[in-house]
Amino acid sequence: MILDQFKLAGRSALVVGGNRGLGIEMAKALAEAGASVAIAARDASKNEEAAVIVDAVGEGKVISKCCDVTDEAQVAKMVGEVNAELGSVDILINSAGINIRGSIDEVSTSDFRKVMDVNVTGTWLACKAVSPIMKVQGYGRVVNIASMLSVIAIADRTPYTASKGAVLNMTRALAVEWAPFKITANAILPGPFATEMNLPLLDDPKKYQDFVSKIPLGRWGELTEIGGLALFLSSDASSYCTGGAFTIDGGWTSQ
């Protein structure tokens, strides 16, 4: 049965940045498909709130871990604990990210480095931590959240575009590196979604309409629309997909 390829019963997933926005929607999708889920982010109380929500929609075990994605020791410790408590780490979704907007004249060097540290180094550290676990298992699904700005550009986004371009190419390199171990690595490239990160655009009617005018489907993405793609890339249904860049942007980058 084709639907059986999407079932995740017996699988364990770690969703970094899974306590809000697109992250929690992807965590819910994996839980609904039967996976046990670990949510990792810096805000312990927000993690617990998210864990309750995710636990309500699935049958697997749900845990949460407090972790700064830029701290290598914390990431390694968190991954080890998840592996011990859930019995494996079959799926990793890297969804933690920040965006600091402004022209290159306005953005400070420290802000540029902060965006790179969270979006690029944080993703790399989580991938590094799960790598030996997945190699021993001979199985893994890694999904890195890049952006449509991995492949196109918008003014006043130099930190974010640089970071997301790096995430996409990092994912491609990992796909080649991990292929002999039956570990796949793919990137999701979201367009405009109504997340907390995009509140500066959502709260500005002109900026909001400027974005909508560039989207062939004529609207922003609904948060729930990320779940199906995340499930596909986390499941056996995507077994021949690796190194891919999967846009979900209402058609923006097709123009």
The CATH homologous superfamily is termed NAD(P)-binding Rossmann-like Domain
The CATH architecture assignment turns out to be 3-Layer(aba) Sandwich
- Overall outline: globular
Note the main sheet. Answer: 7 strands, parallel
**Looking at CATH, which topology would you report?**
Rossmann fold
What's the helix count?
A: 8
Mean pLDDT across every amino acid position:
96
Rg over alpha carbons = 17 Å
Task: Report, as a whole number of angstroms, the end-to-end distance.
Answer: 36 Å
Task: Give the topology string: H per helix, E per strand.
Answer: EHEHEHEHEHEHHHE
Overall CATH class: Alpha Beta
- Residue ranges: pLDDT <50 for 5 or more in a row? none
Percent in helix: 40-55%
SS content category = alpha/beta
Question: Quick one: how many beta strands?
Answer: 7
Supply the number of structural domains. 1
